[in-house]
User: Fold this.
Amino acid sequence: GASFFFLSALVDKSLLRKIPQGRYEMHEVLRQYSDEELQEVPDEKQAVNDRYSEYYARFLYAKESGLRKGRQQEALETIGEEIENVRA
Assistant:
């Protein structure tokens, strides 16, 4: 992950916004720009999509044991915080 210093620098430049629970959100214009740039390089776009999918597949797999071992509430809350990213 990114260092706190790096994230703080991006927040200071208004490229990221800090949201509840210690999370960050990318500025919408920056997100659109990066998406447009990726459209120009299909292989890179596919690689980014693959890494994104792999990350969230591992995330869900890691939460599976909590769902099976009596920590359902905690696992569901954590998954709920990430559900929009999982769906993307």
Notes: The CA atoms of residues 31 and 40 lie 15 Å apart. The chain has a mean pLDDT of 91. DSSP finds four helices and two strands in the chain. The chain has two domains: 1-40, 43-88.
